[in-house]
Structure formats: structure tokens, C-alpha cells
Specification:
Rossmann fold; single chain; 7 strands; alpha/beta; globular
Length: 286
């Protein structure tokens, strides 16, 4: 298999498992050196005992697929830890070609199935106030801080910044979790605003929507909770980002909200099982 991203330096946040791990694998498969951050360096995260996955495992798999994986423990709720992680990339390479802001504390209640998960679709006044901080502090703010620290390195490389978002930002469907709805919308607007700042420097910034992803947490959901016929592996999103990163004309899309399945159609990307998932955009439009 060709390695079109050989020599590319990437940073994927929140890559112990789930979408972040899949993104790292997709980039590694294309030959990139991928720095992966998260809280679980090895073993299991005691806060999420039901979910397997660690940074060391992700980095090893990135390397096995033909890239180079580098595990960096980092709690992105702590700005200093984020700074240290970014400084390591700077010291070792002096540039960053791809930043994928994926880390997201907002799903932890669902994975732990505690009060936050049990009240996910309940009226907002009955939900724990901590949901707001998890969506914005361990999500939107973490994306902003990481982007701010990485911007000079991205400018050096005329690179690519991707915020992983979701269709929940498109409209409020009555039962949507309000902090979740607002946070995903904020991620989209952040990508637009950052694109305006970065475009003169040749840096592309976008927001990217997956469909239903077969993450470890989703696969633990009760039987019948999801219909998987049009679902995506986590690695599918990584393959799509790898294809987009290799597109010399990507700057024309800067500031846009993109859909992984639609980009896959454009670039001819398939999932690990050979399938090409369909876009679910129509399910979320008014």
C-alpha cells in the first residue's frame, strides 16, 4: 500500500480509543508520524473501566500499519500539560502538518452510565451542571487551547486543522442534550473563525462530521440501541482525513463543515471492510 503521508507530522488528541484512535490509525496507515495524546498511557482508565484502549496500544498499531506512533500522556483539561505535549512536537520536528482536535470529555457520562448518561435526553434543568463543563472545558476549550498552541507549527507547515464535530450542531431536535448541541456548534464556528485567521498563512481549518461510529463505547450500548447497517469504523474517519490532508487544493474548503462520508465519496475512500458509508446529513436537516 502506498504511503502518501510519509514525512507528515500529525497530532491527534484523545486517541487512547474511539474516534481518536481510528484517526491515528488512518493517518499511520498513510505513513504519517502521529503523536497521540490522552489520559490513558497504558492499561485502563479507572474512570472508564468498561472501555479498553490506551495510548501505547494506539501508538504501537500506528507503527504496525506503516507510520510512526508516539504516545504522549496529556490531560487536555490542564493547559500546561497541553503546552508540554505541543512543545515536544516543536522540539522534535519544528512543524506540524495535521492537528486533529478530537478529545471530548462530554461522552464520559454515557460510557460510565452514571447520572450524566442516564439523564442525557432529559430536560436540561434535571441534568447535572457538570455536563456543561465536560462539553466545553474538556471539549471546546481543549480544542481552542491546543489550536492556539499549535498554530505557529501549523503555519510553518501550511498545515491542516480539523475539529471533530457532529450533526447535533445542525439543529436542536427537542430531545437533544443542550450543552452537547451548543458545544458542537461552537466547534463548527471555531473552525470557521480560525480559518479566517489562518487562511493568509496557507493553513486549512475545517470541522468534520462522522456518521455513526463503531467505537468501543457504542458497541457496549444495549442491544437495539443502534442500527449499524450504515455505520463507520473509527479508522474510516482517519482514512478520510488522510485523503483530505493529501489534497493540494484543500485550502479552498477552509472554514467549512465537512461530512466524512461525503469526502470519502469524493476521494474514493472505503472503510476497512471495503464498504463506503452513506452521509446521514438528511437525517439532521429540518
Amino acid at each position: 500500500m502506498s504511503k502518501p503521508l510519509t514525512g507528515t507530522i500529525a497530532l491527534v488528541t484523545g486517541a487512547s480509543r474511539g474516534v481518536g484512535r481510528g484517526v491515528a490509525l488512518g493517518l499511520g496507515e498513510a505513513g504519517a508520524t502521529v503523536y497521540v495524546t490522552g489520559r490513558t498511557l497504558s492499561g485502563r482508565n479507572p474512570d472508564l473501566p468498561r472501555l479498553a484502549g490506551s495510548l501505547e496500544e494506539t501508538a504501537e498499531e500506528v507503527t504496525r500499519l506503516g507510520g510512526r506512533g508516539v504516545a504522549v500522556r496529556c490531560d487536555h483539561r490542564d493547559d500546561e500539560q497541553t503546552r508540554v505535549a505541543v512543545e515536544r512536537v516543536r522540539a522534535e520536528h519544528g512543524r506540524l502538518d495535521v492537528l486533529v482536535n478530537n478529545v471530548w470529555g462530554g461522552y464520559e457520562g454515557l460510557h460510565a452510565w452514571d447520572e450524566r448518561g442516564r439523564t442525557w435526553g432529559a430536560p436540561f434543568w434535571t441534568q447535572p451542571l457538570s455536563l456543561w463543563d465536560e462539553m466545553f472545558g474538556a471539549g471546546v476549550r481543549a480544542h481552542y487551547v491546543t489550536s492556539s498552541l499549535c498554530a505557529p507549527l501549523l503555519i510553518e507547515a501550511r498545515g491542516l486543522l480539523v475539529n471533530i464535530s457532529f450533526f447535533a450542531a445542525l439543529r436542536h431536535r427537542g430531545t437533544e442534550n443542550i450543552p452537547y448541541f451548543l458545544a458542537k456548534g461552537a466547534d463548527d464556528r471555531m473552525a470557521l473563525a480560525m480559518a479566517n485567521h489562518l487562511r493568509p498563512h496557507g493553513v486549512t481549518a475545517v470541522s468534520l462530521y462522522p456518521g455513526l461510529v463503531r467505537t468501543e463505547g457504542v458497541l457496549l450500548a444495549p442491544e437495539g440501541a443502534f442500527e449499524f447497517s450504515n455505520s463507520e469504523s473509527p479508522q474510516f474517519l482517519g482514512r478520510v482525513i488522510a485523503a483530505f490532508a493529501g489534497d493540494a487544493g484543500r485550502l479552498e474548503r477552509s472554514g467549512q463543515v465537512l461530512v466524512a462520508a461525503e469526502l470519502a465519496e469524493h476521494y474514493g475512500v472505503t472503510d476497512v471492510d471495503g464498504a463506503r458509508p452513506r452521509s446521514i446529513r438528511a437525517e439532521y436537516l429540518p
